[in-house]
Amino acid sequence: MRPVLLPLALAIATVSTAGSLYYSEVAGYLPCEMCWYQR
């Protein structure tokens, strides 16, 4: 496995989770069922 892939995967997961939390907590959107499982 290339050394850059693990930090890239971590960055993608972090941005996805932060985006989901932003939309549900700040913007007021209700999270979908899959978002609940992700958290």
What is this entry, summarized?
With 39 residues, the chain is mostly helical.
Summary keywords:
mainly alpha; 39 residues; 2 helices
Question: What's the topology here?
Answer:
Elements: H1 5-26, H2 33-38
Question: What does this 3D model show about the protein?
Answer:
The structure is a single chain. With 39 residues, this protein is mainly alpha-helical. It has one domain. The chain has two helices and no strands. The chain has helices at 5-26, 33-38. It is elongated. The mean pLDDT is 85.
Total number of beta strands: 0
Choose one word for the global shape.
elongated
SS class = mainly alpha
Total separate domains = 1
Q: Give, in order, the helices and strands.
A: HH
Strand percent estimate: under 5%
Q: Distance N terminus to C terminus?
A: 27 Å
Q: Which segments are poorly predicted (pLDDT under 50) over 5 or more consecutive residues?
A: none
As a whole number of angstroms, the C-alpha radius of gyration is: 13 Å
Helix content: over 70%
Oligomer: single chain
Largest sheet: none
Overall mean pLDDT: 85
Question: How many helix segments?
Answer: 2
